[in-house]
Write a structure and sequence with these properties.
- The complex is a heterodimer of chains A (382) and B (293).
- With 382 residues, chain A is α/β, with parallel strands linked by helices.
- In chain A, 44% of the residues lie in helices and 19% in strands.
- In chain A, the strands form four sheets. A seven-stranded mixed β-sheet of chain A has the order 7-6-8-9-10-15-16, with helices on both faces. A five-stranded parallel β-sheet of chain A has the order 2-1-3-4-5. Chain A has a two-stranded antiparallel ribbon with strand order 11-12.
- Chain B is mainly alpha-helical and 293 residues long.
- Chain B has a single domain, classed as ABC transporter involved in vitamin B12 uptake, BtuC, CATH 1.10.3470.
- Chain B has helices at 2-32, 39-55, 61-90, 95-115, 142-164, 166-176, 178-183, 188-214, 224-234, 239-259, 265-279; strands at 131-134, 138-141.
- The chains are: A alpha/beta (382), B mainly alpha (293).
- Chains A and B meet through helix 2, strand 7, helix 7 and helix 8 of A and helix 1, strand 2 and helix 10 of B.
Chain lengths: 382, 293
C-alpha cells in the first residue's frame, strides 16, 4: 500500500512537471475574421498560425511552445477593445499581434499601455498608432509596416514623377483614419511637387455606389485617380469607373490593395498601380506561399497580409526569446532593440523613437493582363 | 448639362433597384401592417442561390436566376411560417412581428456568416457591364439599362398579377381589411404565403442585381434600409408610392452628390424623409391608418 501511494505520488509529480514544462506561451492575434475586411484578417491569422507551428516544431521559444489566441474584431474598434481586454485579463497573453487597420490599434493603444502588454500592428500605417497627438511615444505600440506619410509621399512622387500625371482626383472614405491620413500626405506632397488636385470626393463606410462621385472625377479632367481605400470599395470604384467610360485615367492606390479585388472588378483592374509592402513574385516568400496553400487548401491571395503576419510571428518569437521571459515590459524592450533581424521580406531594424521599422522599402505593383499583380518597382527611402 | 443627365441616369438606375425591394416591403406592410425587416435577408438568399447555381452547378444565368427567385420566395414563405404565423395567431399587436422580423434578419445574416463565411463573392461576369452611351448625353453600363428594364418588367408583372388574377383581387381586398377578407371565405394563411412568396421573389431579383454590381456578402441586406426609407417616403403599403419614393430617393442621392457634395448625401436623404413625415405623415401615396410602426 505504501509503495502504491509512493507510486501515485511519483506519477502525479511526473504528470504535473510534464504539464508545467509544456505550458505554452500565449500570444494574442487580433484579426477581423468577419465583416468588411475579413479576407485580410483570415489570411493573417492563418499565416501567423503557420509560423507558430513551424517554430513549435523546431522546439518552441524558451523551451515552451507558442500558442496563438485569435479573436475576431469583426473589423470594429469596439469589438477589438473587448477582444484585447479578454486577451489580457482571461487569456493572459504576453504580446498581441495585429490588427491590420489603424482605427483598431488607435482604439486599443491605451489598453495595452495600461496593461504593459506590447501590441504590434501589421498594416497599421497611421503615425498616431505608435506616437500620440502630442508627439509622445506610445511605449507598448509597434508596427511592422511603413507609415502613411511615407506611403503618401511615395504615391505622390510616383504619380507626379514616374507616371508624369499632373491633375489628380481623390476618392476617399471619410470615416477611415487610414484613408484620411494617406489622403492628407498625398495632397501635401503632390502639391509640393507641382501637381494639382482637381477633385477630392468622399464616401462613407458602407457605400457601394460611387457613380455620382465618379461622374465628378470624369468632369474634372483628372488624369490620375488616387484611392486611399481598403479592398472592396476600391474594387467597386474601379469597376464602376470603367463602366462610366473612365478608361484612360491612371489609378494609384495604397496598401489597402488585396488580390481579391481582381475577382470583384475583373479586367477593370488591369493597368492599376498599388503601393504595398511586398510582392507575390518575391522569391524569398515563394516557399511560404506554397506551404500556406498546402496547409489551408487555399491560395495565399492576400499575400501582403500573409507576408506581414508571417514575419511578424517570427519577429515576436525572436523578441520573446531575447527578453528571456514572458514579461510584457521585457518583451517591449526587446522589440524596441531589434536590430538587423533578417525576416523573409526585409531586414528589420527598429527605430526606438517612433516604433516604426527604420527605412523600410516600398514596393509598387502593377496589375497585368492576366488579372494578377506583378512587381513593378521598389522605392528605397531617401 | 452633361453632368445633370449623367446623374439622372445614375439616379434612375439605382432607384429602380431600390423600387424592387421597396415594393416587397410595401406589399407585406399593406396586408399585415408591419415592416418586415427580414426582407433584406431574402435578398441575400437570392444572391447566394444565384452565385452557387452559377459556380457549383454551372447552369446559365437564366436557370440560376429562376432558382434564386424561387428559393428567395420559398424562404420568405418559410420565415413567415416559422416566425410570424405563430405570433399572428396569438395576438393582433403587430409590434411583436416587427421585433421578430428584426431577429430573423440577424439570424439570416449570421447563418451566412457561419456557413459560407464573411468573404466577398463576386458573381462571374454573366451580365454585360460594357459602357453604353445614352443618346450622346451620358454614359451608363449595359448592366444599368438591363436592371432598369428588369425592374420595370417585374413591376408591371406585379401590377398585372394584382389587378387581373383572383388571388390578386384577394390581396387587394386584404389590404383594405384582412379580417373581413377572411370572413368572405379567402384562405388567409394561403393569401399571406402568396404575398410573402411574391415579396421574396422581388427581393431575389434585387439580390441578383445588387450582388452582380456590389459583390455578395452576408451584410448585403443592409442596403434595404434605403429601400425602407423609399417605401416610407412613398407611403408604406402603397405600391406606386414605393416606386415613386425609390426613384425620388435614387435621384436625390445622385443629384446631391453631383451638385453639392458626396458628404451631404445621407443628410439630404434623411432630411427628405423627415420633411415628408412632417408634411404628409402617411407618405406621398399612403392611406392614413391609425398606427404605423
Amino acid at each position: 500500500m505504501k509503495k502504491f501511494i509512493l507510486f501515485l505520488a511519483l506519477v502525479s509529480v511526473l504528470i504535473a512537471s510534464a504539464v508545467f514544462a509544456a505550458e505554452p506561451i500565449k500570444v494574442g492575434y487580433l484579426a477581423g475574421l468577419t465583416g468588411e475586411f475579413a479576407p485580410y484578417g483570415i489570411a493573417e491569422s492563418n499565416a501567423a498560425k503557420m509560423a507558430f507551428d513551424e517554430i513549435n516544431k523546431a522546439g518552441g521559444i524558451l523551451g515552451r511552445p507558442l500558442e496563438l489566441v485569435v479573436y475576431d474584431t469583426k473589423s470594429r474598434p469596439e469589438d477589438a477593445v473587448n477582444a484585447v481586454r479578454r486577451m489580457i485579463e482571461s487569456d493572459k497573453v504576453c504580446l498581441i499581434m495585429g490588427a491590420n487597420t489603424s482605427s483598431i490599434n488607435l482604439a486599443t493603444a491605451p489598453l495595452v499601455d495600461r496593461a504593459k502588454i506590447p501590441q504590434i500592428g501589421t498594416a497599421t500605417t497611421n503615425p498616431l498608432v505608435t506616437v500620440d497627438e502630442k508627439g509622445k511615444l506610445r511605449p507598448y505600440s509597434f508596427r511592422i509596416c511603413f507609415t502613411d506619410p511615407y506611403q503618401g509621399t511615395i504615391a505622390a512622387e510616383f504619380a507626379k514623377n514616374t507616371l508624369k500625371k499632373d491633375k489628380a482626383a481623390i476618392l476617399h472614405n471619410v470615416g477611415s483614419d487610414y484613408a484620411q491620413g494617406l489622403r492628407e500626405f498625398f495632397i501635401e506632397n503632390y502639391k509640393k511637387l507641382g501637381g494639382q488636385i482637381v477633385t477630392d470626393e468622399g464616401y462613407r463606410d458602407a457605400d457601394v455606389d460611387f457613380r455620382a462621385q465618379l461622374a465628378l472625377v470624369q468632369r474634372s479632367g483628372a488624369n490620375v485617380l488616387f484611392l486611399p481605400g481598403l479592398g472592396r470599395d476600391m474594387a467597386l470604384i474601379i469597376k464602376q469607373a470603367r463602366e462610366l467610360g473612365l478608361t484612360d485615367i491612371d489609378i494609384v492606390g495604397g496598401d489597402g490593395y488585396g488580390e481579391f479585388m481582381n475577382d470583384i472588378a475583373g479586367n477593370s483592374m488591369v493597368g492599376t498601380y498599388w503601393i504595398t509592402h511586398t510582392n507575390m513574385d518575391d522569391p524569398d516568400m515563394a516557399p511560404v506561399f506554397k506551404r500556406y496553400e498546402e496547409t489551408f487548401k487555399e491560395e495565399a491571395k492576400e499575400f501582403g497580409n500573409v507576408t506581414l503576419a508571417y514575419d511578424l510571428a517570427y519577429w515576436s518569437a525572436d523578441a520573446i526569446g531575447r527578453a528571456g521571459s514572458t514579461d510584457g515590459a521585457a518583451i517591449a524592450k526587446a522589440l524596441e532593440e531589434t536590430k538587423d533581424l533578417k525576416l523573409k521580406h526585409f531586414t528589420l531594424t527598429m527605430d526606438p523613437a517612433t516604433h516604426n521599422p527604420h527605412n523600410k522599402p516600398g514596393i509598387i505593383l502593377k496589375i497585368g493582363d492576366d488579372n494578377r499583380s506583378h512587381y513593378f518597382m521598389t522605392v528605397e527611402p531617401k | 448639362m452633361n453632368t445633370l443627365s449623367q446623374q439622372i441616369i445614375n439616379g434612375l438606375s439605382i432607384g429602380s433597384v431600390y423600387a424592387l425591394i421597396a415594393v416587397g416591403y410595401s406589399l407585406v406592410y399593406s396586408i399585415l401592417l408591419f415592416s418586415n425587416f427580414a426582407h433584406g435577408g431574402f435578398l441575400v438568399i437570392g444572391g447566394y442561390i444565384c452565385y452557387y447555381a452559377l459556380i457549383k452547378a454551372n447552369v446559365n444565368i437564366w436557370a440560376a436566376s429562376a432558382a434564386a427567385l424561387a428559393g428567395a420566395g420559398l424562404c420568405a414563405v418559410l420565415v413567415e411560417r416559422l416566425a410570424y404565423r405563430p405570433i399572428r395567431e396569438r395576438t393582433s399587436i403587430t409590434l411583436y412581428m416587427l421585433i421578430a422580423s428584426m431577429g430573423m434578419s440577424i439570424v439570416i445574416e449570421n447563418l451566412f456568416v457561419v456557413t459560407v463565411g464573411g468573404r466577398y463573392k463576386a458573381l462571374p461576369e454573366v451580365i454585360p457591364m460594357k459602357p453604353v452611351s445614352v443618346f450622346g448625353l451620358a454614359t451608363t453600363s449595359a448592366f444599368d439599362i438591363l436592371s432598369l428594364v428588369t425592374a420595370v418588367v417585374f413591376l408591371i408583372g406585379l401590377q398585372l398579377f394584382l389587378s387581373k388574377t383572383k388571388w390578386g383581387l384577394a390581396i387587394r381586398a386584404a389590404s383594405y381589411n384582412l379580417r373581413v377578407t377572411g370572413l368572405m371565405g379567402v384562405n388567409v394563411n394561403r393569401l399571406i404565403a402568396i404575398v410573402f412568396f411574391v415579396a421574396g421573389m422581388l427581393a431575389g431579383v434585387g439580390g441578383i442585381f445588387l450582388s452582380a454590381r456590389y459583390t455578395l456578402y452576408p451584410q448585403l441586406g443592409g442596403i434595404t434600409t434605403k429601400a425602407f426609407v423609399a417605401a416610407v417616403i412613398g407611403g408604406l403599403g402603397s405600391l406606386p408610392g414605393a416606386v415613386v419614393g425609390s426613384l425620388i430617393l435614387g435621384l436625390a442621392e445622385m443629384l446631391t452628390t453631383g451638385f453639392l457634395s458626396s458628404q451631404y448625401r445621407d443628410l439630404i436623404v434623411f432630411f427628405l424623409l423627415i420633411v415628408t413625415l412632417i408634411v404628409r405623415p402617411a407618405g406621398l401615396f399612403g392611406r392614413s391608418i391609425g398606427e404605423k410602426v
